[in-house]
Each structure stands twice: as C-alpha cells, then as structure tokens.
Amino acid sequence: MAIILGDIQYGKAESRLVRIVRDTPRHEIRDLNVTTALRGPFQNAYLEGDQSNVLPTDTQKNTAYAFAKSKGITSPEAFGLELAHHFVHDVDPVEGARIEVEEYAWERAVVDGAEHDHTWLRKGQEVRTAAITVDATGEYVIGGLKDLVLLKSTGSEFTGFLKDEYTTLPEEKDRIMATALQAQWRFAPTAGQSLDDIDFEAVYPEIKAIMVKHFATLHSLALQQTLWAMGKAVLEAFDFIAEVRLKAPNKHHFTYDIGRFGIENKQEVFWAADRPYGLIEAQVTRDDAPDAGEAWRFSAGLA
Ligand SMILES: O=c1[nH]c(=O)c2[nH]c(=O)[nH]c2[nH]1
Fold it and tell me: Which residues bind urate (predicted)?
C-alpha cells in the first residue's frame, strides 16, 4: 500500500480590493473579493517542504492589487483573465490558475436631487460572481450572481404532486414564490470569436433582466419549471453562452392559520419560514456546447 498526494492547488482567498478611479472629480468605484489559486508542480512543497516552485500566496495577493491599478478593472471577468494569464504565462512553474471574483455593487448617493461624485450607497441586491480558469487545456470564463432575492405574490402554484402516506402538503393554486437565486453561466465564444470580444459588462445586466423577467411572467407550476424557463431564455438570447447552472432555495411562505381567531386569510398573511427550504437545482445546456473542460473545477467555492 502506498499513500499518494492527490489534487493540489493553493492561493490567496478573499482579498478584499476596492479600486477608485479618480482621474476626474466624478469618481468610479469597483469593490471586489478576489481569490487566486495556482495549479502546477507544487508537490514537493507538500511532500518535502520545498518552496522553490511556490509563488507565495502573499505575492498572488499583491499582484491582484497591483493589477487593479496597472491593468484597471473593466469587469470581474476581464480582471480575472488578466490575473490568470499573468500567473500561467509569466510565472514559470505555474501550469494553471483559477481566479474567483465576487463584486459588490454601489450606487451613487443622491444629494439635493443630484448624483454625488464620490459618495455611494451599497446596493442591497445580488453579488456578482466570476470564475476564470486558464491552463494548458484552454481558457474558461464563468459569469454569475448569487443572493438575488426574488418574490412573487401570485402567479405560482404547486399541485398535482406525487403523494404517499407521509404527504401532508396541501395543494396550492395561488402561493407566494420566493428564492435567493444563484446562477452561473459559462461563456463559450462562437466560431471566429474570442473571449476578449465579449462585452462582459453589457451582458451581465441583460442576463439578470432576462432571469427576473421570466421569474415574473411565467405562471409557475413549480420552481423547477421557473428555473428551466430562466436558463433556456438566457441561452436563447446569447449564442456565446453554452450553459447555465441555477440553484434556488425555495423560500417557503406558508399561509398562516388565522382562521383559529375567526379571521379569514385570503392569501394575505404568511409565515416566512427560513428553514428548512426546498433546494431546486438545474443545469441548462446547449446540446452542441463545447466541452466544459476545467471551467467548473472550483477553489474556494466563492463563485
Ligand atoms: O416549486 C416547488 N417544487 C417542489 O418540488 C416542491 N416541494 C414542495 O414541498 N414544495 C415545492 N415547490
């Protein structure tokens, strides 16, 4: 019997990085949480304590801060590609890099009816995510979001489900449907196109809008059906997106029994339970999608 070292990677997780562009009185802000992970011949660091191939995680962190100024941040995806290219192409032993980015959005404060130049309020909505991998097999970019909290107060039902001796759930023709959506989409440039041709900044709000629209407008027979509609619509809208992965906790809202107090409840008063929750997941893919390769191999699970 031999004990072997399996998969390895190492890096700096969750470098909080804020970039202000202040070339004019009207500043711009990007607020990121950056995770880097390197893959390559680092076995001897584990087996023998030999650091000769190890680019310190501290250096990886420094590189992210340096690039925030020298390369700028046009999008989480493009920033991740810059970092991944650098580690793989410029740092000799590195064979692969995985960069995961979260972005927290800010909106300008409105003061006396006008947008302020250098004061922002944190936007309370979703966190934008990106996961970038570069290695000898190719380059992979995944965009995404998480914690997009959505609720519709009608237009959702759940009936006709399988029942056995343990089923107590009543059929519901008109219910609240709510979730905190996590979605990730894999970019796959079409023929003649490269990742650099994709306008990640323009695509992000459009994907979010498509998903919100289908959540709102589909009369939902189940959260499963809603996820399918959202994922399919994104693929129909963008030929350079190959695959969408969705994860949706079903944030149950139970009609509260105020009949016990002689008060009728016509879907007006609910108990919003936080746990347990149904967890509905789906992958929606083109049947001719290029191979995902290393795209989904994760590091810190941030994105
Ligand atoms: O949209 C739903 N899907 C389910 O699978 C399910 N199961 C459940 O109890 N409620 C719901 N709602």
Answer: 57-58, 158, 175, 224, 250
